[in-house]
Amino acid sequence: MTRVGDLDREAARTRLVEAYAAGRLSALELEARAAMVWGAGDTADLATAVDDLGEEPGTEPGPGGASRQLVRDLLVFLVCGAIAVVAWQVTGRGFFWPVWVLVYTGLPLLRPWWAARP
Question: Where are the bilayer-spanning segments (predicted)?
Fold first, then answer.
């Protein structure tokens, strides 16, 4: 078995987000599988989280794929951020830990800007 790195985990996370956007996963399944992806140490662990989604990793999006990807990333940012803020509010506040969820889910939104750099 091969060890997985952050790029492999990010590719798996993208597959999860696409499956969620297509309605093949619920929000709870998305969260549970995302936790499995980021905890995966080898390819078998990673495969457990994404192999039944029916998509091949690394497939290029068709026409308009970049805008669909941006919409998906924005949807994940808003949904996960809202869930985290509500959980923070319900659990009595304190340190604003949802900032870490917002940063993590907001990073893919910078992809178009990063790709446009000279």
Answer: 70-89, 95-114
